[in-house]
Design goal:
The protein has 127 residues and is mainly α. It has a single domain, classed as Four Helix Bundle (Hemerythrin (Met), subunit A). It is 88% helix and 0% strand. It has 5 helices and no strands. It is elongated. The protein starts with a helix and ends with a helix.
Length: 127
């Protein structure tokens, strides 16, 4: 077997590893955001908007700190939607609109879950 064959095998293994890494990284980033946003939604629906706003700000901070990595790994359209919903969330929190705040948190959580599902390390996504 020649050097080109082994170089090709090595390159293939590197690409497979990077693909699996990207699938796992999206899950690692988005799943905690989903959990935090669902907690914020629950708090807002229970009337504890201040704690809900605090959790939503934490989720936004986590999102912003990992946005560059996600921009490499994920589709751009859902990321734009997340940015828009975080902007709306800020407005609902400012005007103390609990219902819309909770709905926006729920929408963000669903979008994060959809990003995780579309990048989950499952056979259809690996193929």
């Amino acid at each position: 077997m020649g050097r080109r064959f082994w170089f090709g095998i090595l390159l293939l293994l590197i690409l497979i590893f990077l693909g699996i890494f990207s699938l796992v990284a999206v899950d690692t980033i988005c799943s905690p955001l989903e959990t935090t946003l669902l907690q914020a939604q629950s708090l807002a629906l229970d009337g504890d908007l201040e704690r809900a706003i605090s959790l939503a700000r934490q989720a936004k901070s986590d999102w912003e700190s990992r946005r560059d990595l996600l921009a490499i790994l994920a589709d751009r359209s859902p990321m734009d939607d997340v940015e828009q919903l975080f902007a709306e969330l800020e407005v609902y929190g400012k005007f103390q609109d609990e219902t819309h705040f909770a709905g926006c948190c729920g929408s963000l959580a669903i979008l994060c879950h959809a990003m995780v599902d579309s990048h989950a390390p499952a056979w259809p996504n690996l193929l």
